[in-house]
Amino acid sequence: MSQPGSPVPPREAGHPAGGTYSDVAVQEIYARLLGACLAAGLSRPESEDVAQDVWLWLLSCNSPPVALAVPWLSAVVRNFVLRYRRRAGRRRGREGVPLEAVPEPGSPFDTSTLEANEVLDRISSLLPETERKILVLIRKGYTLAKAVEILGIPRGSRAYYGGRLVRLAREGIRRRIPPAGH
């Protein structure tokens, strides 16, 4: 059953031809199976499952010595990996995504964005009404020019309100407005 020139793992003394193999031979064969599964791109737990399936198949065929023939072993492992992936795909189609594969819920926004919005909210509460309206429109995505146009501010006053808004915001940040609720 083994290929010419391929090493046959030693059997334990006192066992007939169908007996068990030494621990060293079993470990070597299983290590090759596991290595081939990992090389096929499976994760460690998946590789261990498939390697165990291949090992059981080898034992049922009474052919563990053939496992040391590397080209043959890689073809067997490839077939078992393909079978495993097909079975896993069918299971996913039937059962959906396993809970372990679902990412943990997280914050929808970057925390720096949230902090910046809190600072802008606090600054906005300290601004006069015209500047507050301009800031609200700018935060909605309008440019300064478009925001003052929407509010009907005369063209000559636009630069004044823009500069005033920036100056008041800088002063608010310098004063390090205390967090909301303090």
Structural class category: mainly alpha
Contiguous runs where pLDDT drops below 50 for at least 5 residues: 1-18
Number of helices: 7
Main β sheet profile: none
Please give a quick description of this structure:
The chain is mainly α and 182 residues long. The protein contains seven helices and no strands. Helix 4 (111-126) packs across helix 7 and helix 5 (129-139) crosses helix 7.
Keywords, please?
182 residues; mainly alpha; 61% helix; rod-shaped; 7 helices
Describe the structure.
It is built from 7 helices and no strands. By secondary structure, the protein is mainly alpha-helical. The protein folds into 2 domains: 23-101; 111-174. The longest helix is centred in the middle third of the chain and has 26 residues, at 70-95. It is rod-shaped. 13% of the residues are buried.
Topology, element by element:
Elements: H1 23-39, H2 44-60, H3 70-95, H4 111-126, H5 129-139, H6 144-150, H7 158-174
